[in-house]
Structure formats: structure tokens, C-alpha cells
Amino acid sequence: MVKLRKENSEGSILSLVGFQTKLTYLEQARIFRMIPVLNHAEFAKFGSVHRNTFIDSPKLLNLFPQLKNYENIFFASQITGVEGYMASAASGIYAGLNAVLKIKNKTMMSLDNRSMIGGLINYMTTENKHFQPMSENFGLLQRIKMRNKAQRREKLAEISVDYIKNWRKSYESAID
Fold it and tell me: Based on CB atoms within 10 Å of each CB, which residue in 2, 77, 116, 153 is the most buried?
């Protein structure tokens, strides 16, 4: 499957999503033109391989996410092994909130897998010999048994919203 993403409001420039390759630009153009809808396309940019740099978070970080051996240092975003803009932003907010608690000599607060960010934090801080970056997915959330996938996801979303609301209230009480 080829996925195209609009790169401007007119839709006259499209990106091929997920085409990381070591192929030369000429070879990419040749191969992409084999796809009927791209036969006469003008390519503004070609794919290239990029390397994700990330630390071995399960070995280095605790749940808050601080360095285990240097607790004044917090990590967040893609360097920790979360992928995507929202996960990176959420992990930064989470680390920042715990940094504030630490500065104020309050007990730091963890999240569990009742929320997506909690599921990601737990994934990136649980010992794993083959740790690789992870983006948000329903497999990170607590398991609930329901046959209907849409209803299960809706229930997981409800649980997550309630959990985060309560976590926020607890945080606000702790910070006072």
C-alpha cells in the first residue's frame, strides 16, 4: 500500500509516507513511476534513511522518567523511545510535572497503563532486552475483555479520560 499525505493546502504537493530507503533519487523516481497514479508525477522530494537516536530507557530511566543514577536529570520525547509528536509532547509534560514535584520536595507521581502516556512510560521503563522505540497503540493499555473492538476502544478511552482527570486532581493537590 502507498500512503500519500498532502503537503500544502491545495493538495498539489503530496508526500509518500513511510518510504525510507537507500535507493538513489533516480532509482526512486523510476520505481515510483511504475505506480500508475504516479506515472506522470513531479517529485519535489525523495525518501532517505534516517536514524532514530534513543537511549536504552529501560536500563537508564525510572517511572518519573529520571536517570536512575542521577535523579536531577529527566528525559522526555523521542530520545526516550516514544515516537510521534503527541507522545513526545505528552512525555515532556509528564517529565516536567514530575520535575516540579521534585524541586518542591514533593512525592513524584507515576502513570499506569490506564492512559496512553502511562502505557508508553511503562513500556519505556520496563526491562526489555530488545528495546525499540514505540508509538502509541491500544496494546499499551490495560486489557479489558469485550468482543466488539470499537466498543472496547471506546471503553478504554473513557477509562483513560477518567484516570487522567483523577491524576490531574491528585497532582494539583500534591503541588499545593
Answer: 116
How does pLDDT run across 76-124, given as a tens digit for each residue?
999 999 998 999 999 999 999 999 999 999 999 999 999 999 999 999 9
**3-state secondary structure labels for all residues of 84-128:** CHHHHHHHHHHHHHHHHHHHCCCCCCCCCCCCHHHHHHHHHHCCC
Structural domains of the chain, count: 2
* Alpha helices for the chain (secondary structure H): 25-32, 57-60, 85-103, 116-125, 149-175
Which of 115, 117, 120 lies closest to 158, judged by CA? 115
pTM above 0.85, yes or no: no
The answer to whether the beta carbons of residues 99 and 150 sit under 8 Å apart is no
Q: Which CATH number characterizes residue 89's domain? A: 3.50.50.60
> Is 46 part of a structural domain of the chain?
no
